[in-house]
User: Fold these one by one.
Assistant:
Number 1:
Amino acid sequence: MEVLQLLIGGVAQGCVYGLIALGFVLIYKATEQVNFAQGDLLMLGAYVALTLIVEARAMGWSIHLAFWLALPLTMVIMAGFGYLLDRTVLRPIIGQPQFAVVILTIALGFVFRAAAGAIWTTESQTMATPFTGKKVVIGGAVLGAESLAIIAGTFILAAILYLFFRYTRIGIAMQAASQNQLAAYYMGIPVKIIFSLIWGISAAVAAAAGVLLAPIATIDPEMGFIGLKAFAAAVIGGFGSLPGALIAGLMLGTIEPFAAAYGTRAGLPKGVPEVSAYILMLVVLIVRPQGLFAQVHRKKV
Amino acid sequence: MRNIFKTSYVQDIRLIEHGGHVFWYGLLLIAVFAAPLLIPQFFVGEMSLVFVYAIAGIGLMLLTGYTGLASLGHAAFLGVGAYAHNYFVTKLGIPFPFALVMAGFVSAAVGIAFALPALRMTGIYLAIATLAFAVILDQVFSHWASVTGGFRGVPVARPNLFHLDMNLFGWAVNIAGWEMKTEVHFYYVCLVVLILITLGARNILRSATGRAMMAIRDSEISAQSMGIHIARTKVTAFGLSTFITGIAGALLAHKIQFISPEAFNIILSIQLLLMIVVGGLGSLHGCFYGAIIVAFLPQFLALMKDVLPPSIGQIPGLQGGVFGLILVLFILLEPYGIYGRWRKIRLFFEVFPLYRAATFKRRRGYLKTERMR
């Protein structure tokens, strides 16, 4: 049953990668900006949720009520934060080289980390959730309820996002803006506001990922570095493809624990399991630079 | 205002454009050579750190500022240079100057080995690939213990010029050499290397290779149409950049006197980027301004810790946060960096009542999508 346990743990970790990667892809697809601060948005989301839950518990609320109120509230707060971030910091540099945005978001990540350290201290904290420490036994394998909650949460979120982009007016406007900004603008779509909304959604998804990740990890200002691995997932998935990001995230999440468990037995050099995500990404980038689920169209001359 | 009327091609690519350069750069040279006699030893040490950072900055500037290839993992090449140099000096007993150059070549070899497959990518994908490569190199530093000392790192001896302790064809050769005992000696070594590298970079930039690099930065398609071999030029740029960065790494190893994998992590890569962005992308002057900021800011913050209220001064990630904030402000307010600001100020006085802010205005264009290729 070791395999099943590794698999579920890996899939849960992969779901978190997938959710962060989804945030990368959402922003990239719509605005062609690469947001290196996505992992730090996750960190901020986790801290906001932690604060809300601690406050609610202090008022004597039950853990269930506190958690299920904190989750949507955190997503709303972070969505507002993402919207304002785009409005104030990123909109002024629209039209400048892409590289400027990369450096800008990396720098923002540093600022967020320092701010989080100042507000919540740098000590690792754990978040109490209704799933913490519960076990589910399926077919002889003991599985953590946290892992199952992550998987369920990811699928619900993915379904909501799918329905949103497929059926709502604003979701379709977002698709239009991501396919062709200029044409969307001519059709009367307020592209700038759409961009800010996308940043909001992306921050909310990151916050949800942070809340889901919190039970299986500790919360500290450095937890955003998980974003680098999720980044690898986004690249492997083809950077412009939402399902690709999720699938690649799941792939990375499942490869890692197996590489760690069987890698040395299989004769891999030390250190390879830790960087398996990056090796996979480099291979994909070299062999198929547009990613596995690409959306590149050849320009017709 | 100084007007230079260029009448020949040779004049256009001259190293020294006019007499003013001779005067001011001469003055600067005298100042930096005389500095150790005038300032306290602590600042001499800090100055040599500035020089080392400036060398690394020139390396990254050739790649990012002049060829337009962003690297988010250049600290790893610093690491390659540092480890290779230390290995050559301590394990093989090669004299310092030769080990320094060989460390550069090792770093360049690693860089080219990475560049050959990686240059199929462009723009953001290349930046990501460099990041991934740096993480992988970091693991190599941690696990190849026989060369790198593993997680625990290795101490680095003081540099020793012309020390030779080898077994050459059966002859045991041992030359005592000249150990650089004080910071001042090391300062002069860094200074000389920096001057050589700066002149070298300046000469490369005015050669055909350098102009090809800039042409690729400005427009890959038009460069190709002019007959520039894109792939070869990019690999050359990568090689040159990593060569210079490797030399900087070797000097940095002596400067920090202890190398471990954490010394060359992503934070250092970001600091290098910060250096050239804040200094001014696309100008060698920018490397120097940026190096001064990156080298002195931690000292400045340490001093400010006592002045600021503890609630601000004691934030653990303060240094990273301040670096980030500076970077954000520069990108939003002065994308051309310190050197760009200096050019604006200079132009303001040169044309005094006629300065127009629009002279430097950036062209804003509609985003050209990268999905259509």
Number 2:
Amino acid sequence: MNYTLHFGQVLPYLPYLLGGAVETILLSVLAFAGGMVIGAVGAAAATWGGATTRRISGYYVTFFTNTPALVQVYFIYFVLPDFGIVLSSFNCVLIGLVLNSGAYLTEVQRAGFRSVPRTEIEAAETIGLSKFQTTWHVVMPHVVRTLYPALTGQFILVTLGSSIGAVFGVDELTGRAFGVNSETFRAFEVFIVTGLLYVGVTLLATTILAWTGWLLFRARVRVL
Amino acid sequence: MRRTIGLLVLTLAVVAAASSARARTLDQILSSGEIRVGVNPNYPPNAMYNNKNQLVGFEVDVAERLAKMLGVKAAFVVVNPASRVPFIVADKIDVVMGGMTRTPDRAKVISFSVPINTEAPGVLTTDAVPYETPAQMNTPRATFAEVRGTTDVPLLQRQLPQAKILFLEDWADAVRAVADGRATAVLADPAFYSTLLGNFPNVKWKVLKGSVGQVYYDCLGLAMGNDALRHWLNVALFSLETEGFVEKDWEKWHHAAMVVPVVPQPYF
């Protein structure tokens, strides 16, 4: 292969790519936060709900885990305008990722809910905590602590999955990398730098997750 | 531990040996009996699939004519804007088309033949929009839907710096964005969007009068240093342009003459 690597040619674009990394972090943190909320509600519905609630939760999870995230966002972005609902690129991708990660997180958190000892739930009932208070004070710290590896894995998948935003005009890291590649034609250098930036973004994102877990639920976890 | 390192070194050696392919010279192409041409079927009518699922279009016709002049077959490889140059560098294709605009940045990595067609960008918008000339759209209230990495993007950033840009993956998405109201307009050569407007019969399209200032030249791209092939391509393209083949074939696919014609020069 008659090719010489010239990273210096790509260096002027580094601030542009870093801006994309910031957009990626923003998109993935928001998507994961939304997904966790849906996941907690879905998991609570699946564990403590009646037959109909359990079935609805089941259909939601089956649909969103068995279709590609790209197809889901395509629907929101290209099909909804035909029904009069036109959302911005960022919002379309965010909603799609929230619904998608919410389904996976429902399953992850359901495992966590099941693993809380029955005695603790009964003790919470005894002292008069509502279902919401039980979830927040008893179940979630347990879930975050014991399922931390699974949650981190899901967070990294959401971060990497945010790259589908490139197809819909969200100016995140992958999209910007494609743009720089088309301008300079230096695919090797651009995508090596982008790969390294993604590693940095996922490390930063998992640190944010650990920090949030500590702040909200006093759950101490190891990051690396 | 030592075995892992040994395995790693062996893998790298195999990869390095396999990737020492160099671009095929003119002689090698002639002996092999085929020339590998990269085209992008997402740019109708320069290249697209007909209803028998065959590749057809202006660029396909030009490539087949060039192959006939060489006395070889044309083997087509589908590329997209991100892969067209890596394929040249890795010797997966000999020549690439697909609206390969000649720019100084790109000329650092590949070499170009003489131009085959031009791109004269204009502004496409709808009747629902209050602007009459491109200069009026130099405001943050105007959003242009553009394809990532095309030469229209830096042109837009230079000529209309205040306007916002929405980056999408291909022209069909960009035209759709304007039809849906996500974007105000598209800045592109009419050749790229004219076949797509028919998909939106309810939208009243309008092309603004006034140019946005620059003509681009699309050429055939090939590997750096592949001089014999490049020289032959220049001679062949001059011959095709002066005999009128390029003009006639362009009109056959685009149903209109090239907005700015390429004037063939006898010296190159």
Number 3:
Amino acid sequence: MKKILSLLVVLACVVMFGSAVYASTDTVKTINASADFASSGEVYISFNLKNLADDSTATAIAWNPSAVTLNSGTETWKTAQQYAVMVASVTKTTGAIYIYQDNKSNSTDYVATNPRTNQDGTKAFSGLVRKGSGGGESRGYIPLSYTMSATKLSSSYEYNTGASTARYLTDKSDLKSDGSTSNFNVAYTTIANINGFVGGVTGETGTYALTGVTGDTAYMYFGAGFKDVQGGDTYKTEQILVLTFQE
Amino acid sequence: MHAGKLKFAGMHMFKTGEYLQVKKIQRLAYFLFVCLFVMLFTNNLFANNLTDKHVYGLFSENFNGATQNAGTVDDNIVYNVWKGDLYPLPVVNTVSGSDAKEGNNYYSCSVSSASVGWSGFCFTFVTGTGNTVTTRDISAFSTLEFYIRPKTGDVSDIKVGVTDSTDRTVKLSSLGINNSSHTWQKCTINLSSLPSVNLTNIKNPFLFNTTFATATFDLDSIVLKRSSIGEFNVTIKNISDNLATSSVTWNASSFRKNWVAAEQYLELSLDILETDNWNVRIYTDNGAVSKDGLVDTASGTKVLQMCWRVSKNLLPNASGDTLVIAYSGSPNYALYDGGKSATDPWYYPWFYITDSAKGDATDYSLLWDSRGYHISVSGDFGGMNNPIYPKVYLGANCANAIGGLTYNANIKVILSYE
């Protein structure tokens, strides 16, 4: 028993002195460092229309009537003859660039007074408004959509609504199916945010980046869904708005 | 209703004599303020290290102390060599080399005496522009410590110690020196054990002498040390005016810019020498390996990478050292001084910072150890001369900073010794 105790004492000493030899003593000084960019950042976009045919500068978006089948009964999407070149910079966390319509603010001939009802029951004021119709359910609108690309597409580009990047152009007055609650959908209207250009929508609210770097260039193409237009009709919108937003 | 003068509560009408007294007090207060200002901002100029320091460097590139031929400031010393007639002087030269025990420099000494010869080398306290020999009180110090590296001959009989009215020495052999081992060996002399020494009246705080030895040897890291423990301090100072402040910041002008130096630097002050195996390291302390920089306070996921460099000098300086942080790209992917050449690794003084969560104890966290301050990623270290207060500069890559956010980092500067 005595030998065992001696052995334990020796082992204890080895452990104690062993730890003392290798013990490290630290004196720690802590410093706070910070970079305050709370007031920094910008939201900027240049949005220039060009003709798809020759890349010359354009001032309005139009569709070629000869490319449209009148009163077809089937919705057929056609690419506009113009596209937009966008250079954007969003360096503020709350910053965003939106695109949407305000057809209630069109001039008298094209003002949207009554919405149409979409398949899901929501009420839409968006699209091209038939002259003198005030919108409404019967041939009052031609729906619009847009798609974005990080590269410039060819002049023969044909609008593909199946592409995941295509989004309906919405109106600020759109309503949910109850007819009274705003259906303004940020996911469908956001062109760019802090992550760069928004490439498209996944699900109801999710978005994915088209380019992750602000300051880059992206291209926007427009589509119109023709179904039951008739000869002599004129459709128009005067209120496609591209806005920068920051808190 | 009261008639008469309007009197405000707390207002006192001074009489002429009182007014003059007040003016005197104001002048005195102003004078004291100016004195305080001068003391604060020229602290190194008027430092009395012998009074202030726990580790007092006599020949040290890491610890403040005496300065050779320092003119009228305190802590002025000169070194002397002497010999008896007909016998050669000791040869004592300062040598630069990576084999120094501390910093870059050490003394290379050679003594060559006949059997009855005597010679020596010492540091002597002096004062005034004429270097008048004086004595100082070193009784607050308990030990005289230094390193010696025997090279040729026999150093055993060389005596080492201090001088008051006469030399108070012990033989190196009594300090356990292994003459046949040509490596740096630590010597510690208990000052109070020197026979009959009067430590309040010391002329030479270090000397060696010999009467019979022929030997060559090196000396380095000669310090006086108190028994009480000193301090390791980190002071944050503004680059703009060198005034102390409370935190390190990058202002809004850094937004979306590549590597940018912070507006402050850290000034290190080391006055501890518990053991000679010590080092000072720097980390972020943000709780994750990936958070090795400034982390946004909103989500805690966006990180602006940080870097650091340490210098013995204030930057930028007249030698062309700048605070412009440049990125070399391939093949080194290093950060270098934008005022220097990207092709010379000597000018890669910026180190990417690592987070303490990584448990990293590599060169990328090492600021300072007995070899000196960590000059560059190529492994260079530099010794320093009085005043020894290494400056640590911090940088951050703000190129991907996001407006509307604030980024924070906890920085740890750690002195470790074993």
